[in-house]
Specification:
about 170 residues, mainly alpha, Penicillin binding protein transpeptidase fold, about 0% strand, elongated
Amino acid sequence: MKKFLKIIFFLVLIVISISLLFIDNGYNMYKEAINSTPLTEKVAIIKQKENYTKFSELPQIYINAVISVEDKRFYNHSGIDIIAIGRAFINDIKAMQYVEGGSTITQQLAKNMYFTQEKKIERKIAEVFMAWKIEENYSKEEIFELYVNSIYFGDGYYTVKDACKRIFQ
């Protein structure tokens, strides 16, 4: 029994050590990104887009639809949704591959502003730190506004106004 407990203890230490390594790498990735281009500068770049749409110009039905599909608990979390991450983690383990994401709107904004689409644990951790930074500095309405003016809508369109113009031509 003592030998079994020692093995379990050793395995737990290995898991903790590997987790700390990933967290450290993700934090360093976040710090490097934020130091190279401050958040205010990234936000200013998005807001300078030709067809930037303000939150007040968006129909409530559109806002509700995006939130219901992308991040049901958008107004109830501080940048990350532990429930969504847990669900995605379980589904990824079941499939034995990355099949589902648990990203919030804020995390997606962070990824689009600073990181690649590459599915790596370190990038996901950096995204979490960046999401906290965004939530610390911007309101939910500002975050949503930045999100719909920076996500890819297809056919080369990155603002909601451009996408609408294309759809309703």
